[in-house]
Every structure is written in structure tokens, then in C-alpha cells.
Amino acid sequence: MDIAGQSAVVTGGASGLGAATVRALAQAGARVAILDRDAAKGEAMASAVQGSFHATDVTDPDQVKRALHDAAALHGAARIVVNCAGIGPPARIVNRDGAPLPLADFMAVVNVNLAGTFNVLSQAASAMQALDPVGEECGVIINTASVAAYDGQIGQAAYAASKGAIVALTLPAARELARARIRVMTIAPGLFLTPLLESLPQEAQDSLGRQVPFPPRLGHPSEYAKMVLAIIDNPMLNGEVIRLDGAIRMAPK
């Protein structure tokens, strides 16, 4: 799909991988709507790319419905949707004092990462299926998993479970939405220089980067965004998960 002139929605677009994706899509000529909870950063990003910001909790169906409606009113119905919103606080299943992880804490991660992704995917697909095709397709939806889906570390039980579910969601979603000419893809990033890792001392960042076989460094969010653009451009990419990780395989801890 040619990105120029298309309407795009990016969740979690105020920072990190989402922000890089917003910039890349805008530079390619898309009209971009940012869905995020961080109003200050979201509005600043929207201003920088001449897009729009929509304060949204992706776990709330009504908020997502309203955001997609308002974005479509401004930019036209979205043919490109990229789900980057997510959280990943570390927590052991049983802590050092022997207490189990509260179910509410586990579900908080699953709700944002998995349910939030599905909420946006399903509502966006519902609107997208009514569009006339552009070339072969009506649109593309790209979700974000993680290498933790395959190599989850100690303390990542909730995060790995949520991202593993996104991996499992990819193929059935692509198969179902094929009738509507909508593609569904997932990117599973490795260690990227997102705000969480940027907050670490440089020595710690360098140590993490050396764990990557090649290139031996943390990934740049712009490299994630390049993968998004490549997926949009290639109509044969559908129903697959792409590891974007420099060949890293995470150790247990």
C-alpha cells in the first residue's frame, strides 16, 4: 500500500516505538492520529507531525470507539493501524518473601497489552472492512509483541504471557480478516532504546547492547518504524510475526 495520503492510527504514539512510527508515517505522507494516555507528549507529537492527538485508554471500548471516530472525522477512515501501546512492569510469580503475584497486577499487564491490542484491532477492522480497496487491500493492522513472547525472563510472566498471546492472535486474525482484504502482522522487537531503557545508566545500556549478537547494541526506535513501513509496502506480508532483535535469545534473567 502506498502510504502517502492515507489515514493512520498509532496507539502508544506519544513516545518510544510508537513515536518513531508516527514520525515515519508522517514523513511518508500519511495523516496520523495518535492514541495515548500522555496528553502532554501526545499533543506535542501531534503538533510536530501536523497530526492529531486523542487521549485514549486502549482498554476502554468507548474511548477507543470515540478516538477512532474523531480521527476518521479529521483524517478520513484509517487504512493503517499500528498498536504500540503497552506496559511491562517486572514482577515474579512468587516474590522473595514467598507471596504470590496479586492477580490484579497480572491482569493489569494482560489488559493493556493483549485486551487493549484486541480492542483497537477489532474496532479498527470493523470500520476498515467497509472501505473500498486501494489496489488489492482495504488496510493493514500491525501489532507489537516482544521477544519475551518466546524468551520470557524471570520476572516477565505477565508481560511474556500478554505478548505471547499477541503472537498467537496474529494468524487467526489474518485468516478471518482476509475476506475483508485486511492484513494483520506482528512485530516482536528485542532490546530497543525506549524510554524505559533510556532511563538506565549508559554502562547498563552498553551491557544490554552487548547481549545482542549483531549489531551488538540496543535497537533504535526508528528501526522498528522502518519495519512498519516495509510491512505496509509489501502486500504479501500477512499473518506472520517478525522478530526484530539482532538474533538475540534472552537468558533466563
TrEMBL record:
Domain Ketoreductase per the UniProt entry, residue ranges: 6-195
InterPro entries noted in UniProt: KR_dom, NAD(P)-bd_dom_sf, Sc_DH/Rdtase_CS, SDR_fam
UniProt xrefs under Pfam families: adh_short
GO MF annotations in UniProt: oxidoreductase activity
Alphabetized PROSITE patterns for the sequence: ADH_SHORT
Organism domain of life: Bacteria
Family indicated by similarity: Belongs to the short-chain dehydrogenases/reductases (SDR) family.
Designated name of the protein: NAD(P)-dependent dehydrogenase, short-chain alcohol dehydrogenase family
Organism from which the protein derives: Loktanella fryxellensis
